[in-house]
Amino acid sequence: MEQPPPLSPEDAVYMEQHSLGQPQPVKIFGILHIVFGAFGSISLIWTAIVLAMGNPAQKLTPPTPELTAQFESQEALQAQMMPITLVSTVIAIIVTVLIITAGIKLLKKRASGLKWSNRYAWTSLAVKGISLVLTLLYTLPVVADATEASLPASMPISPRQLIMITTVLGTLLSCIYPILTLALLNRPKIKSWFAAQAD
Prior knowledge:
This protein is mainly alpha-helical.
């Protein structure tokens, strides 16, 4: 009887993944999705507390004329930023729900885990692009105008330049995880594994 051709190393790994369970990237991203989603939830809870009750640090810090003036300046800035803060909070809720749902489905080995991970990744990248534009067009002028007067003129760069640089770098760094999610979970053999799972 004719023997089947030997498996290539890649096919052997693929068969092993089917027999042992989910591929390692699926498990790793499932865990990371849940962890990052948990951090996002904590951040949202803190934001809700601050919006509803104000900054708790103000109530814990003994009042002085200098601190009072600083807190009043911060409150005025927060009032100016409130529309952006509310929009950012709603968007953060959506992204957090997507990443937690994706993480749960990945850990449960559901075929829809890939779809939810892709939804999270593309939504996250789109949100980061929109946030960058809003920050440069709206947040940057407001924050720069509020801080320029309180900073020494001898600074090598202006507050506007500093905020612009940190915003762009921060946005680029935050894009790494969703890009890795798309790149590693959409490899052909990983997608084949998802296709063989129950939804």
